[in-house]
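>> received
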Amino acid sequence: MHTPMLETHTMRQTFDELASPDYGKQHLPRLRAEMAKQGLDAFLIPHEDEYQNEYLPACNERLMWISGFGGSAGAAIVMADQAAIFVDGRYTTQVRDQVDQSLFSIHDLVDAGPDTFLKANIKAGQVVGYDARLHSANSIERLRQAVDSAGGTFKAVEQNPLDAAWGDERPAAPLTMAVPHSTEYAGEDHASKRTRVGQDLKGEAAVLTAPTSLAWLLNMRGGDVRCTPLTLGSAILHADGRTELFLDPRKVNDELRAHLGNQVTLRTPDDVADSFAQLRGQRVHIDPAVSAAWWFDQLEAAGAQIVKAEDPCALPRACKNETEVEGSRQAHIRDGVAITRFLHWLATSAEQDRPDEIEIATRLEQFREDTGALKDISFETIAAAGPNAALPHYRPTTRTNRRVESGGILLVDSGGQYLDGTTDITRTIIVGQASDEMRDRFTRVLKGHINLARVRFPTGISGSNLDTLAREPLWAGGFDFDHGTGHGVGSYLGVHEGPQRIAKPANSQAMMPGMIVSNEPGYYKEGHYGIRIENLQVVTPAQDIPGGDRPMLGFEALTMAPIDRNLIAPEMLTPDEKTWLNGYHALVVERLSAHLPADVRAWCEEVCRPL
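>> returned
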């Protein structure tokens, strides 16, 4: 089975360049005219699309179209006399660069989100419109409460006024073919998955609206979404494993039909209402965190008994089987070769040639393409030089592009999509000599990374219990970072995958064997530099510790690439920390050497020598 290479970095970069601060001036009047036609005093615009995707096809970049903001999380509210945009801490600088602040006020998405704005700005009797297809049921409930408390009317629109304003200029919806994903990589056929997950429904049914769940459950991939091999669609899973799959028929061919077999019934999106009618009186599971409010409206209208429950595919998808874990190891060896070749190129060329960020991102993707196995990058590469590295989710554009400078830090966060795994790695590199301050901060980040890499822990421990380990060395110096420490990662799926995570906020999902999660503490000095060290690691099965009285889980490092010794202050590391670092670097050499050109292999052995 072969999934065609998705759109190239150059194509994605061109799309990024289309984002402009002029969008607000160009598009707000058009949207407000459509709102007036529908009698709306305010309209809500989430970043998410109908499938609650993080990365979107061009036709669903509604937030970018109205504001110019191109980040992967956010929201906007447009009223007749004002507009507001909401972003989290990752995008506070980016939003100021991309959005016209004379037209949009900027607010914190987490601490002063859209519900807070609505309570403060909606007057009694005003009508607030929303597209029920674009908001999860949970988010709509919070927003409804805010509008009700302000005395307004909350109204689901029949036609999205932004889409109407966008009109014929809106890109066409993606129509890439859905393709089978071989059990060679999945490790379990979809009949087994459907039976296993269906049994957990205990005689009931589940509506699946997350494309990642369809991809995992049916061993199916596609190219409808940037950076993630998804086919946009939905499904009903019955307790006996039978599945109704709603896909645009133009995405289906005989190969997929043969792969799905006679227990998966192919239907079109227009058939949803008829299928829901057959659920009348039945208990139907649906996840209010990932499914749009529209689905709940349709189920209620059909007379189904709605059971709010977590997507039944989420946890089994997160716990990778042995085939998927081994596939990830192999993908990371392949990716590690590309990264190490890239780091060697930087070490031998950057000082003299001073490449810029776009050149760096393009060269890195070329090294990945040289593997012959790359299907796509797993997210837009973050290549950030100097002060740009202080922006955790910076993305180079022609407006912000910088060249590397001697004595400056370069932060590169990137990943690849391969049939056997998804990668995500961050390396921070010093060009020239590092300052004592840089070495101090980098070593604190490294100590936190090592803490989280080495930890052993009992069953039942969640990522929020582990988060402090990565932050403690920074806290000891009076520092911290404002993003999560770790996110789940899929198997040739999303680079950000739940339900597991490592972060300050409480998370009830325990770490379980087979879960892949990132380990990425950081430090950011605004206007100067940023530091992050990121490896992916997989939760290992519980094993006894000599002298202990209960088995403990742990982590195995998957990512294989050198960590820059020139930024380390060795005197700050304990003997155990040095042992971990030396052991990790020895493993990098062991796994990569046979695949590296002679000059790169010699360089890798040198930079990975014991500290």
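>> The domain at 179-313 is CATH 3.40.350.10 (Creatine Amidinohydrolase; Chain A, domain 1).
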